[in-house]
Amino acid sequence: MSRVPILVILGATGSGKSRLGIELARRFRGEIISADSMQVYRGLDVVTAKVSKEEQAQARHHMIDIIDPIQELTVVDFRNRALRIIDGLLKENKLPLVVGGTNYYIEALLWQILVDDPRQQGGEFDSEEEWTSKKPRREEGLSSEDLHKKLMQVDPEMAERLHPNDRRKVIRSLEIFERHGQTHSEILKQQRLAGGCGLGGPLRHKNSIIFWLTCNQAVLNERLDARVDSMLKAGLVQELLDFHERYNKDRLEQNQLPDYTRGIFQSIGFKEFHNYLILPKEKRETEEARNMLSEAIENLKMATRRYAKRQRKWVNNRLLRRADRQVPPVYSLDCSNVEQWESEVYGKAVEIVSAVMRGETPSQQPMNSVIDNAKDTDSSNFKRHFCEVCERILINDLQWHAHMTGAKHRKMVLKRKKALQSQTQELPVSESNVCQEEKN
After folding, report:
1. Structure confidence by residue, pLDDT tens digits, 202-228
2. Helices and strands: H and E segment counts in the chain
3. Are 211 and 368 spatial neighbours (Cβ–Cβ below 8 Å)?
4. Average pLDDT in the 52-72 region?
5. What are the CA-CA distances from residue 379 to residues 80, 147, 159, 343 (Å)?
6. Predicted structure pTM score
7. Which end of the chain offers a freer environment for a tag, N or C, measured as fewer CB atoms within 10 Å?
8. Interacting residues of 324 by C-beta distance below 8 A, sequence separation 6+
């Protein structure tokens, strides 16, 4: 049996994921699978922060520049292509290195989180979380409320977890029942019995390793800002202008806004620079345009920092704190000091991979060997609450608590009390009497 592991390298933008991936690929006869949802698109090398052609020449890279920028690649499409590559590498005894920062791409590769479509051999099409970008194809004429009522009839357990306004997820659950003749909630229960948890099914490959490149926050913020500055020097603005004009000409002429929820337009950069991009050419040299550009640059830096925080939160909540999930060992590699890269990052990574390939236990302890403050709440155990005062549905205890302690709710309670007092001239009704959890 092959001891070659599947290696996943995580980390914020500018942390050195690509560098480490290339170094380890060269050292262990491996190839790199990019798990970045924006780098699959051809062109736009600057805005998607692709590795250079010179870097790609040092180690073979997959899943980069594979589709046209205005097309869409679902997580299922990505997973199917990437798994074929990984399986092929393992057969050749080569090390697959999954490098990237798109969380749901990583999860789709590591875990059996998607529900199989019985009409497609080996295909999967849906997930409990927001892991697919496919648009709903049916029930267009029904209101969200009617769709939710329909789901309540066929799968009340799933309906209780979903807000009536979450139209896309409601439709997905209805489609699963229609295609399988089995409810979404029951299929997810079967996944958990097979070794999964509320987040989905079990781990695909037991012999997997995750490297998480960590960094001092102040240092990371400086690097993220410097990364944006280097992208600007590399021609980011002109790249955005050229692409925007080329692919949005018809929209601009019809005075329509681009859809920043689809394709390459989801990439950080387009939304932040939108106001500048739609300016007529003759106005781009004005003071107003320069101010607009400066604001866009600052917004891009803030968006990049926010994205890094979301990635860190994902690692903590989905990997490090999950006692109920099959999670590969997660090893922290501190990249704060680039002068110590050889000893603190590359050297430790080589030691860990070498030990695993020898069938030995690495000397470094994984971060998730001891789980503190375990997290086991997810959509599989959400409870539905109804506030009669505000006439609002809240999904999960966190939303319920935030609502009940919020200023808007307290204002509505006070308003209700005054109304009741004026009508009945009786003692005020307590908040607990006018708000209650909806009974199942």
Report:
1. 899 999 999 999 999 999 999 999 999
2. 18, 10
3. no
4. 91
5. 25, 19, 11, 41
6. 0.74
7. N
8. 197, 198, 374, 376
